Model the fold of this input.
Amino acid sequence: MTNPVSPSERLAQAVVKGVLEEGGQFIRSGNIVYILVGGKRVIVSPDFTNTSYAALQIKYSGIATAETKGRAICQHVAVLGSKQATDMRLAQFSALSKDRNHLYLPIEGGDLLEMPSVRASISFKPRAVAASCSAISPVTPKGFLVSR
Done:
């Protein structure tokens, strides 16, 4: 005898199906499940400030993540997505344009921050870098995904 599918799981299946039909892909880094869709990396989490995931869930299930039922749907999406996830590792880095005039830094939300580069000689000093990075706290670097 098979267990009946709960309404939350049925709605989560609709979210997963919608994401995949939109050309999205589920990926996992450690215990965290992400959705790659529309050029963005979206963490599967019911956190109230996670509007990117909330928008996807509302689009395909009609239920917000702030609702109790929405949190259950999100948990099911994480489990279903994890089963489908491509095994990837998270790599954090920045990039410099070919003409060396623009620096690109990954920021929270999966976007890139483009900055004009400053022509200067930089030497790598790990302790100095760690100390100076604390001054950049409003911008939380996010990684890019690299397949294994």
The two ends are 39 Å apart (CA to CA). The helical segments are 7-21, 51-61, 68-84, 126-133. Residues 121-148 have pLDDT under 50 and may be disordered. The beta strands are 25-29, 32-37, 40-43, 86-91, 95-96, 102-106, 112-116, 144-147.
